[in-house]
Amino acid sequence: MGWQVYLMCFNGRDAEPLGPVKIGFTGNLAKREKAIQTTSPKPVITLAEFRVPERWIARVWESLLHKHFADKRMAGEWFDLDPLYAMAESCRVLRVHLQAQAPVPPPHPDFDEIVQNTMIPEYERVGRVLKAWRHYYSENSNVRAIA
């Protein structure tokens, strides 16, 4: 089944992801999202999920992201972050972490496959698309703030 380290946020107008961002891990993402939605006053969406095969890896990655964003922690696993920044920065942090774990001499022959399986490249691409959409929307709308 596997484990997922996830980033969740609120779903704003026109499906714009809104902060704050929740960073956690689970073995059943659909069930976790439903549980969070039950206690949330706004619609919640999964911004990104990074798949890993073992629970201990998910815990390490979650801890790594919590430490990286510690100065933005609001309460518990919620962080005062722009969702697009959180997704891009999480991809960067996890990619650097994976590169540091690769056997010497880099690059490890399986490194690209390992990174691909975590979904990091997909979320890097999605982040670029959402950032472009946000820029286009702000330039072509009479509404200047997306909220």
Report on the architecture of this protein:
The chain has helices at 29-39, 55-68, 83-101, 111-118, 120-139; strands at residues 3-11, 17-26, 44-52, 73-75, 78-79. The protein has 147 residues and is of the alpha+beta class. It has one domain (3-139). A 5-stranded antiparallel beta sheet has the order 3-1-2-5-4, sandwiched between helices. Helix 3 (83-101) packs antiparallel against helix 5 (120-139). It starts with a strand and ends in an 8-residue tail after the last helix.
Q: Mean of residue pLDDT?
A: 80
Number of strands: 5
SS summary, helix count: 5
Multimeric organization = single chain
Q: Into which percentage range does the β-strand content fall?
A: 15-25%
What is the global morphology? globular
Helical content (DSSP H or I, runs of 4+): 40-55%
In summary, what is this structure?
The protein contains five helices and five strands, in the order E-E-H-E-H-E-E-H-H-H. It has 147 residues and is an alpha+beta fold.
Topology, pairings included?
Blueprint: E1 3-11, E2 17-26, H1 29-39, E3 44-52, H2 55-68, E4 73-75, E5 78-79, H3 83-101, H4 111-118, H5 120-139
Antiparallel strand pairs: 1-2, 1-3, 2-5, 4-5
Helix pairs in contact: 3-5
State the main characteristics:
single chain; 147 residues; alpha+beta; five-stranded antiparallel β-sheet; 5 helices; 22% strand; globular
